[in-house]
Amino acid sequence: MRQVDVIVVGAGPAGASCACTLARAGARVILLEKETLPRYKACGGGVPVKTAELLGLDLSSVLEVRAAGVRLTCAGHDTLTVRPVRELGWLVMRDRLDALVAHTAADAGAELVEGRAVRDVEARADGVTVRAGGNAYAGRYLVAADGAPSRLARAAGLATRSRPGLAIEAEVGVTDAQREAQGNLMTFDFGAVPGGYAWTFPKADHLSAGVCTSYPRLPGLRRCLDAYIAREASLRDPLWLKAVGHLLPRGGTRERVGRGRVLLAGDAAALVDPLFGEGIYYAVRSGVLAAEVIRSALAGGPDAARTYQRAVDREFTADFRYARFLADAVVYRFPRRIIRLAQRAPFAGDCFIETIVGAGTGYRWSFFQFLRRLPRLAWHFWQT
Asked: Rounded to an integer, what is the distance from CA 285 to the centroid of its chain?
C-alpha cells in the first residue's frame, strides 16, 4: 500500500492546484485522475486574470483568445458592450489547461496517477485509505476534487444541501467570417433561458457556446440551446457541433466541506459563481486554501476540517449569497431592464466587470456599491 501525506482525487483546477501547492511545500502527494490527460471537459473556458495570477503559471501555451470585453444582451436585443481598460482574462480549452496544471504539480513532486477511478474510500480518525484501479493508497488527508456530482462528497456526507443548476456546453464549428464577427468578446444573453443565460466564447478555431439555468430541472434546455444558436449570427448554421450537459453547482448555501480527514474543493464543494457560472477561479482558490490548511495541520497546526470550513465560509459562501440575490432576484428576473440600466449608468457594467476580474473585490463589494447609488439607480431602473 502506497503511503503518503495527502491523496488528492481529481486533476481539474481544484485538485491539481492543491497537489501543486502541497508538493512545492514538500508534502508527499498522490494526484488521482480517473481519465488520461488531456481529456475533454465541458466548460466555457473563461480564465479571469486573477486566476492566472493565483496559479502563478505561464498560460501562453494553452491560450486560445485574449478576452477584450463582454457583450451583454437580452434575447439578442438591448446589447451593451463593456471593454475594460485592464485585461479581462484568457479563454482556454479545459483539456489543455487541466493537463498543464496537473503536469506542473507532477514536476513539483506530486505523483500523478492517471486512468484509475476511485472505487472505495475508508476514512478513519488517523487517516484515509483509497482504492483505485486495483491499487490501494493510504494518506493522512484526502482532498476530494472530483467535480459535480461528487461521489466522494456523498460518501463522506458532505455538501448535502446543494441544489445544482443545469448547463449544456457546446463546441461549435463556424466559418472564419463568423469567428471574426464574434471577435474577442464574451457574450452573455440573459433572455435566452429561464432563470439563467446563454453564452458565446471565442476560441482559436471555433466558438464555445452554451446555456445554463439555476433551476435543478428545466425541460427543454437543449431546445433553448438550439434556439440560441439559430438566432445568433456568429453561431447560425454550424459546420459541426458537439454538445455535453453537466451540473452547475452554484454556491451561496452553507455547505459542510470538511469532516475529519476529508476536505472538498472546487465543484465538489459547490463553489461556482451563482450569477455568471464561473468556477475555475474558485476551484483554484479552494484548492490552494485546502493545501495551506493541510500543510499547517501536518506541522501540528489546528484541525484542518474546521479551519478549512471557516475559510470557505468567510471567503466564498458569504460573498456568493450576494451573488445569488443579484442573480435570482434582479438580473435573471429583469434582464432587459438591467441591461438598459447599465446603458444609462455605465457604472453598473463596470462594477460587474470589476467583480469578475478583481481579486480584491467580490459581490458583497458590488452590492454595497449599488446601495450607495440606489436612489439614482432606482430612478433609471423604472425609466427603462
From this structure: 10
Global pTM value: 0.93
pLDDT tens for residues 143-195?
999 999 899 999 999 988 878 899 999 999 999 999 999 999 999 999 999 99
Q: What is the CATH number of domain 165-248?
A: 3.30.9.10
Q: How far apart are CA 127 and CA 129, in angstroms?
A: 7
| Four-way CATH pick for 2-45+93-162+251-320: 3.40.50.300, 3.50.50.60, 1.10.3720.10, 3.10.180.10 | 3.50.50.60
Angle between helices 304-312 and 280-298 (to 10 degrees): 150
Angle at 82 between CA 96 and CA 80, to 5 degrees: 115
Per residue in 283-323, pLDDT (tens digit) is 999 999 999 999 999 999 999 999 999 999 999 998 899 88
Q: Where are the domains of the chain?
A: 2-45+93-162+251-320, 165-248, 333-383
